[in-house]
């Protein structure tokens, strides 16, 4: 077992060396009133700088990231993520501005927000964007609040939001949080929205349909124009979950498909690394008729000057402090400018090509329930392997032994023992072939001895964890007394 810093510390060791003091040494009593001073000595480990650095460096290698290996975590994976973005976002002019500075001193930052909005309007086919939401789910909530405000402004109280059964879990969760009743729409045998069932669910109580296109099976909803027409006919709006825009960007636009609101995950598609909860950015774009309801402020341009517009009387208000996670927008802008129009198209094309390549190879070993050309991802079923004794979860654990991050498992729910694979645009053929060989090897191992796969992983820092116990009885706090 690796020792904690508390166990490694020895009294008197120091992690720093300071130069001789060349100003008067003022006592604590001079600086802090007695009643504000700590009485008991501070119980902290004492270590040398080298010991601390080694400790944390070693810990950092225990995690799997896109910088350490293949990471095909369907839907939620990180797409192309160039390091130059970090450099730009770290420039003092961007990193050190304060949101309360006078507008005349942050013209560059405002210009960047304005220009990123312009680029993303082009990519999505929307009329206005706000960067305030800081996650995809946060964008969904903001979008539904805007939709609600729009209907209310027309004197309508609509109560339902339609969500396909293949939707990302955040969609029904968000609709519920926004106060709507969720109506689930089934998929047909091709894995697409059952248009007949959708039409039967449509009435004047429907506020919106939330849709991902391509859906989470990686399949493009070919009836999208008919779907959007039908929803609009009853006065409902269309919400596009654009978390994974690398499936279509440069080729198709939500705005042209009839969508009224779209959220993007800048921390998936537009080059900000994600994980551990942040920082993210889930901007939403809306059509003209919804712009009066967007959060304040919007960034506007007057002649050569950029300014913040708070004059939106029908705005839903603010959904986050200031302008959202500005640093993430800097990275997205850098990415957009580095890639250019052709580069974005190339990213989508590569993402789709990689997914289809891998799908064609893996469907020989794993059951592919919806066998059609996919977009950025595809969903296999481990049902045959499960019959032999080891299912999707076991395969995911076994992949860890080979140094791969597993695909998303058990989602979408409409596929039994789902393995949702998204290779992304960044991987080369050798990586894809290596992963496919490993998946084949695991399937072969299940044929021979499923118990071996059921007890994986065998080579990681910790073995198989009890996930239920971890969720039901989380121990989130470590107490110093635990050592004694
Ligand atoms: C990741 C994802 C979301 C949610 O984004 P968060 O930033 O994690 O809140 C929503 N929809 C889809 C399809 C996603 O892949």
UniProtKB/TrEMBL annotation:
All residue ranges annotated as the Glycine dehydrogenase C-terminal domain in the record: 347-448
A Pfam family hit: GcvP2_C
Catalysed reaction equations from the record: N(6)-[(R)-lipoyl]-L-lysyl-[glycine-cleavage complex H protein] + glycine + H(+) = N(6)-[(R)-S(8)-aminomethyldihydrolipoyl]-L-lysyl-[glycine-cleavage complex H protein] + CO2
Transcription is among the record's keywords: no
Post-translational modification N6-(pyridoxal phosphate)lysine, affected residues: 268
UniProt-recorded Gene Ontology molecular function terms: glycine binding; glycine dehydrogenase (decarboxylating) activity; pyridoxal phosphate binding
Top-level taxon of the source organism: Bacteria
Cofactor requirements of the protein: pyridoxal 5'-phosphate
SUPFAM superfamilies membership: PLP-dependent transferases
GO biological process terms, semicolon-separated: glycine decarboxylation via glycine cleavage system
Residues covered by the Glycine cleavage system P-protein N-terminal domain: 28-298
Catalytic activity, EC: 1.4.4.2
Keyword Oxidoreductase tagged: yes
Gene Ontology, cellular component aspect: cytosol; glycine cleavage complex
InterPro entries: GcvPB, GDC-P_C, GDC-P_N, GDC_P, PyrdxlP-dep_Trfase, PyrdxlP-dep_Trfase_major, PyrdxlP-dep_Trfase_small
Subunit text: The glycine cleavage system is composed of four proteins: P, T, L and H. In this organism, the P 'protein' is a heterodimer of two subunits.
Family recorded in the similarity comment: Belongs to the GcvP family. C-terminal subunit subfamily.
Function: The glycine cleavage system catalyzes the degradation of glycine. The P protein binds the alpha-amino group of glycine through its pyridoxal phosphate cofactor; CO(2) is released and the remaining methylamine moiety is then transferred to the lipoamide cofactor of the H protein.
Protein name: Probable glycine dehydrogenase (decarboxylating) subunit 2
